[in-house]
Amino acid sequence: MAWSEMSAREQRRVIDRYRLAYIDEAPVNWCPGLGTVLANEEITQDGRSEIGNFRVYRRLLKQWKIRITAYADRLLADLDPLDWPEPIKAMQRNWIGRSEGAMIEFQSEDSAGTVIKTFTTRPDTIFGATYLALAPEHPLVNALTAKAWPSGTPEQWRRQQAFPGRGDPPPIDAVESYRRSVAGHSDRQRIDEHEGKTGVFTGSYAINPATRERIPVFVSEYVLMGYGTGAVMGVPAHDERDYDFAKTFDLPIRRVVEPVDGGVDEDAAFVAHTENERLVNSGRFDGMSAVEGETAIVDWLELDGAAERSVSYRLRDWLFSRQRYWGEP
């Protein structure tokens, strides 16, 4: 559409996509005791401020940001000619964290037809996705939380233990209770491999675009808004965090890749990724190498508008609202 044919709102939307400084709602570490936002490094393992030992909570706050991600590839490329020690350059590359993969869309079964977008570096494992998990701060959590539990919802999915003496709380209460209970956890605590995986069912289901199966949608703190879309497709047979979550909530675990040379126990629930893999239990794609399968599956899903190739970065747009002597006044 030509610029002259756009409405004022459409023109503003285009401009905002290219604006390098913009206002956005972002999850931050808010410390009421200090009255300010804290960096992850300023928070103890117990979720408290290093100064004053005050409780810190995660909350959404309007923030000024710089769109530094627009320069991510340039930052990576410009590391190569630098006369820096290789370990320092490797650290920088890791911070930028370029990941190639696919954006896959899952259609929810709610009346609004909400679409849940997930980023994955392993689209070849889509046939093994048996649930979705959203970060507690994800903007779709409220829309996806059902008014009542679907018939047959297991007790461990409903967070009943948080409501002693109240019987069976509705999904909105269970989800809100869970969000409050994890609000004080830092990102470091949330991804701690030694902590058990927690979560709560939203009461909603989505459709796996590859298998056409209904899969439950959970809220879990092990999913972070700071990476990808803040939603993950759970593939418990091939991801340790997903495996732990699936075991906690008794979710299906379906193997969809295995080493080409075999050597895997047929009864093993979890199979770690290896260099040379082939697809199994993946319909028409069985027998393909993981690399071939990834290309073929994304091409296939693209025909239905359910996927597109995408690049994600660990690097986040620079939040520069915090007042610091080294930064803006």
Care to describe what's here?
Strands 4, 5, 6, 7, 8, 9 and 12 form a seven-stranded mixed sheet that branches. The chain has a four-stranded antiparallel sheet with strand order 2-1-3-13, with no helix packed on it. The mean pLDDT is 87. It has helices spanning 8-18, 72-77, 86-96, 141-144, 171-182, 187-190, 240-249, 290-303, and strands at residues 21-31, 36-38, 57-66, 98-108, 115-120, 131-134, 200-207, 214-219, 231-234, 257-259, 277-279, 307-313, 318-319. The protein folds into two domains: 3-71, no CATH class; 99-313, Alpha-Beta Complex (Isoleucyl-tRNA Synthetase, domain 2), CATH 3.90.740.10. It has 329 residues and is an alpha+beta fold. It has eight helices and 13 strands.
Which terms would index this structure?
single chain, 329 residues, alpha+beta, Isoleucyl-tRNA Synthetase, domain 2, 2 domains, 7-stranded mixed β-sheet, 4-stranded antiparallel β-sheet, 8 helices, 13 strands, globular
- How many distinct domains? 2
CATH first level of the largest domain: which class? Alpha Beta
Please tell me the CATH architecture of the largest domain by its name.
Alpha-Beta Complex
Taken as a percent bin, the fraction of beta residues is 15-25%
Backbone structural class: alpha+beta
What is the CATH homologous superfamily assignment of the largest domain?
Valyl/Leucyl/Isoleucyl-tRNA synthetase, editing domain
The rounded distance between the terminal residues' Cα atoms is 41 Å
The helix tally amounts to 8
* Count of distinct strands: 13
Low-confidence stretches: none
Oligomeric assembly: single chain
**How helix-rich are the residues, as a percent range?**
10-25%
Give me the Rg, rounded: 22 Å
**Biggest pleated sheet:** 7 strands, mixed
**CATH overall fold name of the largest domain:** Isoleucyl-tRNA Synthetase, domain 2
Overall pLDDT metric: 87
Please tell me what the overall shape is: globular
